[in-house]
Design goal:
Distance between the termini: 45 Å
Number of helices: 13
Number of strands: 0
Order of helices and strands: HHHHHHHHHHHHH
Structural class: mainly alpha
Largest sheet: none
Strand content: under 5%
Length: about 300
């Protein structure tokens, strides 16, 4: 049997062409800056400062990356960011799941009141100074906990996870488990979590990106150089480079250092974004499913 193709109208054809054109244009707008930054980071200082880099690296070399890793602090900052990301994401996911699952249960007493309290904190908070005083009174200043505990729970992620549980875990499954003598903690650990891979991957990615890009809280709560994350270390490298540039009297050296500063901007962006770009493909297959199910109104 021959398959019969459904031919659309001329309006549908025009709409498809315009749609592809706009999506392609949007792709170029988003993709070109990323390609430019990557190419510039592998180009020479003279090519970068002269504006010769458009798409491909010009006079390829690793001068920018060598300058970035010349500081001993870069390895410490990278390790600190890794610790904050792994430990912080683990704490975030555990607390989010422990809050989201009870809120998804219809038999939870006072659920509406608790949900009101959760949502209230999304709209109102004490502000920067009360938060700083709280962290200080808890003895967390200049400790790793200052970047992990204050933001341990995201209400938005909790709502997404709660909606996922409501839409995915049928109440009949809970009733069957209870008839077999399974308590709530066993049901959560042995039934709910194995069925919640997509939403766990989604919220873990959200939390991990937030921890890896952490900058503001580290600037406020941390003074110990050994605890600073990568974002602060890279910022310090750029500032120190600018100071050295102002102190130079040799015009040729100053011009070279000015080009190196521009090159450092691109190489540091690549260093800071590479880990997240490497991790994302491994969770991408869960991302769409978890977001679509978790975003349904519950």
């Amino acid at each position: 049997m021959k398959r019969q193709r459904i031919h659309g109208s001329r309006g549908d054809f025009i709409f498809t062409i315009v749609n592809y054109f706009l999506m392609g244009l949007l792709l170029l707008v988003v993709l070109y800056p990323l390609v430019f930054i990557l190419s510039a980071s592998f180009s020479s200082t003279e090519a970068v400062i002269a504006g010769k880099v458009w798409l491909w690296p010009v006079e390829p070399n690793l001068e920018g990356y060598k300058a970035a890793f010349k500081s001993n602090q870069i390895a410490t900052g990278f390790l600190n960011s890794l610790i904050y990301t792994v430990a912080g994401t683990f704490v975030n996911v555990i607390i989010t799941l422990l809050a989201a699952y009870p809120m998804s249960r219809r038999d939870l007493y006072g659920k509406n009141l608790l949900m009101f309290v959760f949502v209230f904190t999304m709209m109102f908070n004490g502000g920067l100074i009360p938060n700083y005083l709280l962290v200080k009174d808890l003895g967390m200043l200049d400790t790793r906990w200052a970047l992990i505990l204050p933001g341990a729970l995201s209400i938005w992620n909790m709502i997404i996870a709660r909606t996922y549980f409501q839409q995915t875990i049928p109440k009949e499954l809970l009733e069957a488990a209870q008839m077999d003598g399974c308590n709530d903690f066993k049901f959560l650990g042995k039934v709910v979590l194995p069925l919640s891979g997509p939403i766990i991957a989604v919220i873990a990615l959200f939390y991990a990106v937030g921890h890896w890009n952490q900058f503001f809280l580290a600037l406020i709560y941390l003074r110990d150089q050994a605890l600073l994350p990568l974002q602060i270390i890279l910022r310090n490298i750029l500032i120190q480079n600018s100071i050295q540039d102002a102190m130079l009297a040799d015009a040729e050296s100053a011009a070279h250092l000015a080009g190196l500063r521009e090159l450092l901007k691109y190489s540091t962006i690549v260093i800071a974004t590479a880990p997240i770009l490497i991790v994302y493909p491994f969770v991408q297959r869960f991302f769409v499913k978890g977001m679509m199910i978790g975003s349904l109104k519950g």
